[in-house]
Amino acid sequence: MDHFLYRDGHLYAEDVPLSEIAAQVGTPFYVYSTATLERHYRLFDEALEGMEHLVCYAMKAASNQAILKTLAALGAGMDVVSGGEYARAKAAGVPGERIVFSGVGKTRDDIAMALAGGIRQFNVESEPEMLVLSEVASAMGKVAPITIRVNPDVDAKTHAKIATGKSENKFGIPIAKARAVYAQAAALPGIEVVGIDVHIGSQLTDLAPFEAAYLKVAELTELLRADGHAIRRLDLGGGLGIPYARSNEAPPLPTDYGKLIRRTVGHLGCEIEIEPGRLIAGNAGLLVSEVIYVKQGEDREFLILDAAMNDLIRPAMYDAWHDIVPLVEPEAGQERVPYDIVGPVCESGDTFAKGRMMPRLQANDLVAFRSAGAYGAVMASEYNTRPLVPEVLVKDDHFAVIRARPSFDEMISRDTIPEWL
User: What element of type H or E holds 37?
Assistant: First the structure.
C-alpha cells in the first residue's frame, strides 16, 4: 500500500496534488510520502512484537536525511555500508548504538570513524577485515562488537546482480568455515563476538530462501554456543521484495516474514535484527517527469521524457520494470497505445520501457514512475552534465524540498583548472 492515489482525476501524494509540486519545483523530481514510510516501518516493527529486536533501515535504499530522521523518530536503527553513510546517519541524529556497519570493504578510516562515534556492531565479512578491525580497535583502546557474516550458499532466486548468499558471491565467509573463524575471532584483542549475520539478497518474492538460510543460522548458533561463544544477537539482513508491476503477484507480507523468523530462530533467545530497505522506501517514492516530445519512429512511437537513465538507472542496469502512469487519470475505456518510453541521454540504454501500453500522451504531459523510492535518487548521477534530481518529502497537505536541484554553475564550479591551463 502507498499514499499516491488519484483524486478528482489527478494523482496526489497524500493530500498534495503532484502537479502542484511540479509547477513549483520543476521536473524531473523524486517525491516521498511520510505516511507510507512510517507505515512500512511499523509493519516490520509490529511483525517482531514480543521479541527483543531492532529494525535497522538499510539506508542504501534512500539516504536523504529527512527520510532517516522520519524513520529514526519511530525508533529505527540504521544499516550503513560506508563511512559516508555512517556520517549521514549521525548527521540525521541517529545514535551510534542504533547503527550497524555492513559492507565488504570497510577501510581503516571507516572503522576508526565508527569506533570514535559509537557503533552497535560491525558485520564482519572476512578474516582480513577482522584482523584490521582488531588492530584499529586495540590502537584506539576500544572494544568493537562484531557479528560475522556467514554465506549460507542459498539461492535467493532473485536478479543475479542483487543476489548475495551464493558461494560465488563476494559476501561473507563460507558457513562451513564459520566455527574456525569464530575461534580465531575469540582469540583476537579489541573485538567482542556478539552474534551472527546473514543476508542472501534483495527483492526476494518467496520466503523459502529465507527459511533455508535461517535454519542454517539456527544450527550454527547451537554449534557456536557449544564451542563457548556467547551468541546473543542474530542479524538476519533484509531483502524482502516489493511488487513493481501492479499486475504481479504480491510478495510475502512483513507479518508472514515475522512468523518465519519466530519459527526458525525464535527458540534461540537471541535479539533479532533485520535490515529492510526496499520494502520501506520503494513504494514510498515516485519519480515525476514531463514528456518533451512524442516522436514517430519507423515502426513505433517514442515518448521522450525529461527524466533519463542517470536519474533512474534501474531499468538500464537491471531491466527493471516500473509502472508508469499519467498524472491526469485516464478516463474509463480510454484507448491505450504502445510507446517506447525513453530519456534524452545519448545512450540506447536510456530506455525505461518498450512497447508499454499507455493512454495517448502529448508534449508537456506529466507522468510518474511508481515504486521509485528505493535505489532511485541514491543511484543517480550527473552524466551528460544533467543536474541531480531534486527530492521532495510530503506530509499530509504540505511538502518540502529536501534536496535542491543544483544549477549548471554550481555543477561546473566544482571543477578545478590546473595552473598550466
Answer: helix 34-47
**Contact by Cβ (8 Å): 60, 85:** yes
Say whether 26 sits in a helix, a strand or coil: coil
pLDDT tens digits along 173-199: 999 999 999 999 999 999 999 999 999
**Looking at the DSSP assignment, which residues form a beta bridge with residue 293?**
304
Active site annotation includes 346: yes
Eight-state DSSP code of residue 343:
-
CATH topology for 4-31+282-412 is: Lyase, Ornithine Decarboxylase; Chain A, domain 1 (2.40.37)
In 153-227, beta strands by DSSP E: 173-174, 191-197
Q: What is the pLDDT of residues 354-409, one digit of tens each?
A: 999 999 999 999 999 999 999 999 999 999 999 999 999 999 999 999 999 999 99
CA distances from 419 to 314, 414, 415 (A): 40, 16, 13
Model-level pTM? 0.93
Catalytic residue among 1, 346, 417, 421: 346
- Locate the domains of the chain by residue range: 4-31+282-412, 34-279
